[in-house]
Amino acid sequence: MAVRMIQLASREDWLNKRKSYVGGSEASALVGCNPYMTNIDLYRIKTGQQARENTDNKDYVIYGHNAEPHLRELFALDYPEYKVGYVDNNMWLNDRYPFAHASLDGWLTDRYGRKGILEIKTTNILQSMLKEKWDHRIPDNYYCQVLWYLGVTELNFAILKAQLKYDYDGDVFLTTKHYYIDRADVEEDITYLMQRGETFAGYIEAKKEPPLVINL
Fold it and tell me: Please, what is the angle between helix 187-206 and helix 39-46, to 10°?
């Protein structure tokens, strides 16, 4: 089985290419953990029955996009034991999972030569409930995203760098958290999620809408 990384010529090319695959930010919909879409929404998007919401002009999306290269550089400065790689419009594909792709915020090599994923998140904490989702854990939808990336890339570990932003009447406070996930500790979860992806791909191939998945 071959894992490969390709680089698309432009963001437009990347957007068009990803239509044929399930990506990491969509993977949580397969298990009912995506706050923005259900697995039925995802099916309808992938089959052209429903338009994907365009969030490119949202303030939080623009902020996250512009902050990402700086946060990647800060990670490299704070953790010199890792070699950090990145190219724009990257897409990782795996013959084992022809329905899936991964687009990474960065990839890492540790001092022992082990390869890993760097995932970067920026979040504006507006409610206490959102703060609790980051309390000593990763929110479920982001956890699924990391699992998906580990599945597609077959890399050894992942580090999620999260910048949590609080705005109190114009005073901005930032909290940065790092979460380390070793593949060996989550192998069963990876297998389960990729199996759900394969099942979902079967519904697309059969042109049959899947039953709604609800995470209880």
Answer: 50
